[in-house]
Amino acid sequence: MKPIRTDGIDPAARSRARRRALQALYAWQVSGTAIPQLIHQFQHEQDMEVADLDYFEALVRGVAEHRGVLDLRLAAHLDRPVELVDPIERAVLRIAAFELLHRLDVPYRVVLNEAIETAKRFGSDHGHTYVNGVLDRAAAEWRPGEAALGRR
């Protein structure tokens, strides 16, 4: 039996939701498909049965809705324009930025670890190190209290 936290959050289902959100957002970035259509397509895939569907949808809609602000906030921590960041790493960064800024119920360490693992799985060979560096700097600015405690 898989562990479920006492607060009702299934970490494995959340991880799957993040991975599926990455795939949906990548498709959105590349094809420009409407968000409702993408959500509908992804919700009907077989492995979505074991993902946190509500969290998947919140991530996809949240990133799409707040993309301009997320990109602006991320730009301060990037070494190039956001449009020139690899599409997979860009989607990972946008998801993590959304979580850091809008999902304060998710600890910043969880956000960073999930983003790094997702970038390792789907991104370029060293994309996860780029994601780690960007998000480490962003977390220090956006969640200074948590980041300071995490560095002790």
Number of DSSP strand runs: 0
Write down the domain tally: 1
Span between N and C termini? 34 Å
- Report the CATH topology name: N-utilizing Substance Protein B Homolog, Chain A
Helix content: over 70%
Largest sheet: none
Going by helix content, strand content and strand pairing, the class is: mainly alpha
Rg is 15 Å
Outline the low-pLDDT stretches. 1-6
**Count the helices. How many?**
7
CATH homologous superfamily classification: NusB-like
Order of helices and strands: HHHHHHH
CATH architecture: Orthogonal Bundle
Instruction: Estimate the global geometry from the Cα principal axes.
Output: globular
CATH C-level category: Mainly Alpha
Mean pLDDT: 89
Strand content: under 5%
Can you put this structure into words, describing what you see?
With 152 residues, the chain is mainly alpha-helical. Helices cover 70% and strands 0% of the residues. It has helices at 11-31, 35-43, 53-75, 87-102, 108-122, 127-142, 144-150. Helix 1 packs across helix 4 (87-102) and helix 2 packs across helix 3.
Topology:
Blueprint: H1 11-31, H2 35-43, H3 53-75, H4 87-102, H5 108-122, H6 127-142, H7 144-150
Helix pairs in contact: 1-2, 1-3, 1-4, 2-3, 3-4, 4-5, 4-6, 5-6, 6-7
Sum this structure up briefly.
With 152 residues, the protein is mainly alpha-helical. 70% of the residues lie in helices and 0% in strands.
